[in-house]
From TrEMBL:
Protein name (record): Unannotated protein
Any one GO BP annotation for this protein: proteolysis
InterPro entries found in the cross-reference section: M28_fam (IPR045175), Peptidase_M28 (IPR007484)
Transmembrane feature ranges: none
All residue ranges annotated as the Peptidase M28 domain in the record: 78-271
Gene3D superfamilies, per the entry: Zn peptidases
Source species: freshwater metagenome
GO MF terms, alphabetically ordered: metalloexopeptidase activity
Length: 310
């Protein structure tokens, strides 16, 4: 799939100094996993969602919730972080916050949630308002625990989209599921061919980032939140690796997470969304510091411009 230039780009990325956004994703995923399993309907799942909502709000996203029942178990929810944009275009990124006990769900799926949290400030402060963007930490995805045929959080999100009359606006809904390990990633969807603006947009972003992503057609209707999106007639897909040995087991712990994988998946999604890869907080702090320096009297001409953020 990749020529020599592509392979060089992959090597360069792997050897690059750590990327601050990827570090945020990694740290958040570690903390979630270290707190233990997060079964759908549990207090631990609720605590994870609360932590995500706090980070979304602090990033400047508007936060709303979808609340729903997990039959026979309890209550769950989606945390939806909204960045406004042109109403006729809506991009949705999903990551399920629950885990399949006894798994503490480091890869599955603290990794995807960490990535959402890291993206929040980048999306919130992006100057691009062409599309509205929703970052959604779903609940009750793990069907092994809920015993339901559908992914309940994704179904609740579909109901939100229908209520709001937004189903036609959805350009794609991308589930980030098991994105915290590996040097190549799979892009799942039930579509027979890569669709323009959907799978092709992700593959193009991956190529630009020098990250290997293979397209895989779902064997059936799909095994993550993108399933419900597709069944409702909207374009859905999933980025992730399902082949790790600890999947849905107690050994899916924080030690399974790899910083390099977060760098790769962060790079792909940043390019997909067209947002700056710089952490907004660090950038604004730099500008603020520069502004403070500029306000002081100086005998040495104009103050230095801040370095352009990566
Ligand atoms: Zn998962």
């Amino acid at each position: 799939m990749l020529g020599a230039a592509g392979i060089m780009a992959v090597v360069a990325l792997a050897a690059a100094p750590s990327d601050p956004a990827a570090d945020v994703a990694y740290a958040f995923a570690r903390d979630l996993a270290n707190a233990g399993p997060r079964p759908a309907g549990s207090a631990a799942e609720r605590a994870a969602h609360r932590a995500v909502a706090t980070r979304f709000r602090a990033s400047g996203l508007r936060v709303v919730h979808d609340r729903f029942a997990v039959p026979g178990i309890g209550r769950s929810r989606n945390v939806v972080g909204i960045r406004p944009g042109r109403a006729s275009c809506l991009r949705v990124l999903l990551a399920h916050a629950d885990s399949d006990p006894p798994a503490p769900g480091a890869l599955d799926n603290a990794s995807g949630v960490g990535l959402l949290v890291a993206l929040a400030p980048l999306v919130a402060r992006s100057g691009d308002r062409d599309c509205e963007t929703w970052l959604v930490a779903t609940g009750a995805e793990e069907r092994g625990h809920t015993g339901r045929p559908d992914h309940l959080g994704a179904s609740a999100l579909v109901r939100r989209l229908r209520r709001a009359g937004r189903t036609d606006d959805v350009r794609y809904a991308l589930s980030l599921d098991e994105v915290g390990a590996g040097s190549r990633f799979d892009l799942y969807s039930p579509a027979p061919r890569a669709r323009p603006g959907v799978e092709r947009a992700v593959l193009t972003a991956a190529r630009a980032a020098g990250v290997r992503v293979w397209r895989v057609r779902d064997a059936s209707t799909g095994n993550s939140d993108h399933r419900e999106i597709e069944l409702a007639g909207m374009p859905g897909m999933k980025l992730g690796v399902v082949s790790h040995a600890c999947r849905h087991q107690a050994c899916d712990r924080a030690g399974q997470l790899r910083k390099g994988a977060f760098r790769r998946t962060t790079a792909v999604v940043v390019r997909l969304l067209g947002v700056p890869s710089a952490p907004a907080g660090a950038r604004s702090a730099t500008l603020r510091d520069t502004a403070l320096r500029a306000a002081r009297p100086t005998h040495h001409g104009s103050p230095a411009r801040p370095a352009e953020a990566r």
